[in-house]
Amino acid sequence: MIRLKNIALFSILMLYLVVMSGTISDTRKQLLCNGLNVTITNSKETGLLTSDDIIDAISTRTHCLGRPVNEISLKETERILLELPAIKSAECYVTEDGRLHIRATIRKPVVRIINIHNKGYYLDSEGYIFPLSEHFSPMVLIANGRIQEPFDLNRTRNIFVQNPDNMTGSKRVIYDLLMLVNYINQNDLWRAQFEQIYVNEAYEFELIPRVGPHIILFGGIDNYEEKLENLKTLYTEGFNKSGWNEYVFINLKFRNQIICSKR
Question: For residue 106, how many other CB atoms are within 10 A of its CB?
Fold first, then answer.
């Protein structure tokens, strides 16, 4: 008898859930999208995209406002957002009040590239490429000079679409440059000291400091950690006594020695 009663209660519960599911489904069909809420999870770190930029991109492509929410594909909306090069991740969901919510994470630039054709763009630490912003200029290293990409800049999302292991000369510059930039950005002293990296005719790096009138002839990427350690020793021990305003060049290209040229 108890078993029959449990079966009856279970049947009633299942019938209730089916009815409610149908009611919710009918309600959702009648619910129109009446607004967009955008949350940028790392807005304090980067201002390359604003909430308005994201709303414009979604509204233009999906025409979601005024549409029944059950006709809006959340996966498709997320895919459209991820087509924007500056967006690293995106999540979309709809709430009971008919609002489409978007949570987006923006890529953080580590360097601003100005290549040999005067084309500007940003790179993040992973090598993703995204365009400059019209309303925001982050305080990042600037790299310019003889920078020639070994890929189609207009069609490439990440510089590592190609393997740089066997590349040399101009083709490898962008990869060595990002390696150096990432190392600089991991060090508080170097991140504060350097403002520009110039790639010269020999495809070697010249570092432009914020403090001091000198130029640092860095050479290639070889032994880059040792070169910067030697430079730190020069700054903290050598220039503490002599000062750095009298030097025009500091040459780190040769191993185990630093050559300083006076003005």
Answer: 24
Torsion angles phi and psi, residue 158, rounded to 5? -140, 135
Which one of 3.40.50.11690, 3.30.70.580, 2.30.110.10, 3.50.30.10 gives the CATH number of domain 109-262? Answer: 3.40.50.11690
Provide the edge-to-edge strand list for the sheet that holds 215-219.
129-130, 120-124, 109-114, 141-145, 194-199, 205-209, 215-219, 247-251, 259-262
Q: Which CATH architecture has domain 35-106?
A: Roll (3.10)
Our measurement of the distance from residue 47's CA atom to the centroid of its chain's CA atoms, rounded to an integer in Å, reads: 11
In the chain, beta strands by DSSP E: 35-40, 87-94, 99-106, 109-114, 120-124, 129-130, 141-145, 194-199, 205-209, 215-219, 247-251, 259-262
pLDDT in tens, 160-173: 999 999 999 999 99
Q: For residue 162, give both structure tokens.
A: 């190609």
pTM (predicted TM-score): 0.83
